[in-house]
C-alpha cells in the first residue's frame, strides 16, 4: 500500500529563496529514490513563504528508506534556522478512492 503525506514549511523572513533552492535540490535526490512515486513542491498562492510538499512512496519500506537517506537528514538539519518551528509539519494521508 502506498505511503502518502504532505509537509508544510513556512520560511522565516528573508529565507524564501534559500528554502526554495534547498527544496529544489532535495526534489532531485528524492525523485531518484527507487521507492519514490511522487515528490511535488508548491507554494501557497496567497503566501509564497509557505511551501507545501506532496509525497508518495511505494510502501512503508520505501518511506523508511527515504527517511534514512543522507540527503534527507542533511536537508532537515539545514532548514532548522530557516523555517518557523525549525522543521516541517507532516500529515499522513489514507486514500479514499
Question: What do you see in this structure?
Answer:
The protein is globular and about 40 Å long. The chain has 97 residues and is of the alpha+beta class. It has helices at 16-31, 60-67, 70-79; strands at residues 3-10, 36-44, 47-57, 89-93. A hairpin with a 2-residue loop joins β2 and β3. The two termini are 13 Å apart. α1 (16-31) runs antiparallel to α3 (70-79). It has a four-stranded antiparallel β-sheet with strand order 2-3-1-4.
Give the beta-strand count. 4
Helix coverage percent: 25-40%
Structural class: alpha+beta
Rg result: 13 Å
Order of helices and strands: EHEEHHE
Q: What distance lies between the first and last C-alpha atoms, to the nearest angstrom?
A: 13 Å
Q: Let me know the largest β-sheet.
A: 4 strands, antiparallel
Protein name: Antibiotic biosynthesis monooxygenase
Keywords: Monooxygenase, Oxidoreductase
Domain ABM: 3-92
Pfam families: ABM (PF03992)
What's the layout of helices and strands?
Blueprint lengths: L2 E8 L5 H16 L4 E9 L2 E11 L2 H8 L2 H10 L9 E5 L4
Antiparallel strand pairs: 1-3, 1-4, 2-3
InterPro entries: ABM_dom, AI-2_Isomerase_LsrG, Dimeric_a/b-barrel
Keywords: Monooxygenase, Oxidoreductase
GO molecular function: monooxygenase activity
Amino acid at each position: 500500500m502506498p505511503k502518502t503525506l504532505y509537509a508544510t514549511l513556512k520560511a522565516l523572513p528573508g529565507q524564501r529563496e534559500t528554502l526554495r533552492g534547498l527544496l529544489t535540490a532535495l526534489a532531485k535526490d528524492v525523485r531518484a529514490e527507487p521507492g519514490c512515486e511522487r515528490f511535488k513542491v508548491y507554494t501557497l498562492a496567497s503566501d509564497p513563504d509557505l511551501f507545501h510538499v506532496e509525497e508518495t512512496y511505494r510502501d512503508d519500506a520505501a518511506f523508511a528508506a527515504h527517511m534514512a537517506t543522507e540527503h534527507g537528514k542533511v536537508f532537515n538539519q539545514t532548514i532548522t534556522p530557516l523555517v518557523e518551528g525549525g522543521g516541517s509539519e507532516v500529515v499522513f494521508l489514507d486514500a479514499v478512492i
